[in-house]
Amino acid sequence: MMKLVLAADTAANAFENGSTGASAEHGEDLARIGDMAKMFGVTLRTLRFYEDKGLLNPKREGTTRLYTRRDRARLRLILLGRKVGFTLRDVKHMIDLYDPKGPNTKQLKVVLDKSEKQMGRLLKQREALDEAIDDLTKAMDTARKALASRQPVAANG
């Protein structure tokens, strides 16, 4: 997440397939809400929700939402953060600390701290899942053996 957060604006400039033919005054590639939803595999409602929460800030032409490269970069970071289990509040906090003109030392420290804590939580969840899988496997083996002992053996011939 840290590398992506620092590279948000740079990555946005390299985003391929982002153009929808709409362009801003300075030739910036813009994407409409439906295009954004398709690009990222999210619903329109999700994009509106992220906008309501201040995570995305699309430009407006009348009632049409137009997403910039920056919005696309932010959405990638939002989705990554959600994938690894961060809250939207944490994601917003980490993204909002980004300063394209600064060293981003505070952002790096926050990202690292939150990431280390989340890694600990994920490792505990993995341990619990491994234990549950082992328990379920044993229960299934027991059930198979019990079922096999109750079925008649087919006669040859």
Automatic annotation (TrEMBL):
InterPro entries the record matches: DNA-bd_dom_put_sf (IPR009061), MerR-type_HTH_dom (IPR000551), MerR_fam (IPR047057)
SMART domains assigned to the protein according to its UniProt record, in alphabetical order: HTH_MERR
Top-level lineage group: Bacteria
Ranges in a coiled coil: 112-146
Keyword terms: Coiled coil, DNA-binding
Record keyword DNA-binding present: yes
Domain HTH merR-type: 30-97
The keyword Coiled coil is assigned to this record: yes
Family annotation (PROSITE patterns): HTH_MERR_2
Pfam families: MerR_1
Family annotation (SUPFAM superfamilies): Putative DNA-binding domain (SSF46955)
A GO MF label: DNA binding
Classification via CDD domains: HTH_GnyR
Protein name: DNA-binding transcriptional regulator, MerR family
